[in-house]
Amino acid sequence: MGNIKLTIATMLKALIALCLFGYSINALANDGVQNHSATSERFKVEFTRDKDYKCTQCHKDSKHTLAESHGQNVIDKVGKEVNCTDCHSNIGPDHRDGASTVVKYSDAQSRAGTDKHQLPPELILEANAACTDCHTPERLREANWTHDVHAKNLTCSNCHTVHGTDAKVLSHDHKAIVGMCVDCHSDFNHKAKE
Fold first, then answer.
1. Residue 149 and residue 110: Cα distance in Å, rounded?
2. Distance from C-alpha of 99 to C-alpha of 85, rounded to nearest angstrom
3. How many domains does the chain divide into?
4. Where in the sequence is the signal peptide annotated (predicted)?
5. Is the separation of the CB atoms in 62 and 52 below 8 Å?
6. Is there a domain that residue 37 lies in?
7. 125, containing H or E segment
8. Do residues 83 and 114 both lie within one domain?
9. Is the CA virtual torsion 179, 180, 181, 184 positive or negative?
10. d(Cα 113, Cα 176) in Å, to the nearest integer?
11. C-alpha to C-alpha distances, 13 to 2, 5, 9, 26, 149, nearest whole angstrom
């Protein structure tokens, strides 16, 4: 019985010594820590709910384009800012399937205000009658319309298949896409040779 009491006493002393050692190490570690006041901005976290977050992971410049092309006009009309899903809400689960075949295109390449000679909007609207039933002519006539390709005598159906089964610009044949694009976008010629 004496050995048990001695063993318990030794273990108790070792446990107390270990606790004191741990406390002293903790106290030494805390001495070197700088005390940040409650006003410190270093650890401030802001939570933002961005409805367009998923969109802008691939369409990185779309936030700027959306603000520029819609901006204050839409806010004045609907009384709030718009986001991608206000108009593009029917995105399916296979939306990204063709992502690897997409060639980057900057809307600045077709922006009005360059030295292009534009066709009269009436001729374009006549050729695009099937499109303008939903896409209003007033919107298409605006000077900063992103798809302003009228100088090349193009209509919507040159690039967009009107309710067809295969979309011309979303084809899975990479060379066919590039071939169609480089007719106007000569800066993509290096892609056509791949």
1. 6
2. 19
3. 2
4. 1-29
5. yes
6. no
7. helix 121-127
8. no
9. positive
10. 30
11. 17, 12, 6, 20, 87
